[in-house]
Amino acid sequence: MRLSRYFLPVLRETPAEAQIASHRLMLRAGMLRQEAAGIYAWLPLGHRVLRKVERIVREEMDRAGAIELLMPTLQLADLWRESGRYDDYGAEMLRITDRHQRELLFGPTNEEMITEIFRAYIRSYRDLPKNLYHIQWKFRDEQRPRFGVLRGREFLMKDAYSFDLDVGQGRAAYNRMFVAYLRAFARMGLKAIPMKAESGPIGGELSHEFIVLAKTGESAVFLDRRMLDLPIPGDDLDYDGDLAGLVDAWTCHYAATDDVHDAARYERETAAEDRMSARGIEVGQTFFFGDKYSAPMKATVSGPDGVDRAVQMGSYGVGISRLVGAIIEASHDDAGIIWPEPVAPFGVEILNLRPGDAAVDAACDESYGALTAAGKEPLLDDTGERPGGKFATADLIGLPWQLIIGPRGLAEGSVELKRRATGERRSLPLDDALRAICG
RNA sequence: CGGAGUGUGGCUCAGUCUGGUAGAGCACCGCGUUCGGGACGCGGGGGUCGCAGGUUCGAAUCCUGCCACUCCGACCA
Q1: ipTM over 0.90
Q2: A82-109: average pLDDT
């Protein structure tokens, strides 16, 4: 992409509304525009990151055997009356009335709807297990939206729902999602630690929150620091195998958010030198809640014995839009964002320090072509802005590489290559720089 | 939902106390000089001062009501 043709409205000054780093940087980097409290338009740069996060989550869901569908944002109130949650949910649920005075709601989650879909088609244990998911915008009318996309009212969420014949198979389904989450967050460059959690309005007894450690996190967390070094399951993981051992390895150490923290247990189970307190941002949560929805909503299947029984269910959420903010909280400096490569909006920024200079233009065009062909998604700053401004913008939007091409270096046959994460810069011939980027 | 604030050009803000016909910096447009870490000169465009009433000869400024947004707390993916 050529910056001169792109839409990247960067702000030199920090908008007064933004308090925390990710919100401030998303506004300054031209990723996001607030349209109302907790409701945002995703500008092109932000949208690219959102899509990359979404893609990683989708790939890991598919790999774990989940099946994608798409449910609507609006749901009938009657559906929620079946589970009893219509009245329980309170003012956080945005209620809407259509022209026929039918009561609708903007979905804050989809347990009821997926259960309704499941029960309409699935009758036999032979059709189990099933895990259905979608990636859709949700709305929760927070009393106090804040922190930009970390706590918006409208947010993009992946939510998956598992259906199994019995508790044992339900647990196995839970384990598959648990492991898929470890992989998905790690692929985004995040350390996400599963922690024992309250299940809140979703219900159930077995639940984990996946918490990204970041200095500016919303809640205090306490954990065994040995969890930070646990290995992430590799591409060769067999989701049809028994994952219980893997899940045990990730849940046998103490890790809890402050709302469920048990100081006495913490001290009993964790050696003093392994105790670690930090701050964290929740980016996903898994629930196993059995027949909480399937029983009242009569989602039953016939078992091998011919007897109908309510299916065992779990649900598994990932805050896609929230993750974009969480990644920035975990990875930025005073100059701007530092994107992990897998979620960077573009792979490399080429800075043309002197548009109009034939040699510089030619070197930039050559680089742009080569990097595009190599799938590196280059962003070429070919604008008339002065070099200082280009450097500042490049650091702000934080692409992993900066390829700096100007007349001074080119006269000596070299360009400059900068690694955003480390700040390391070196001068080298263009071909070598391109090779280094393409790795 | 309690408490505290803020709404003035695209952004950051001054002006409000003490009423007199709207400013600065940045950004934007034109010309020129510049050009490797947010340049400079000259010229220029852009604002029903959140909205609605009211007081007054006159309201960004005073009064009343409303709306929006932000922060602290409670709450929450």
Answers
A1: yes
A2: 92
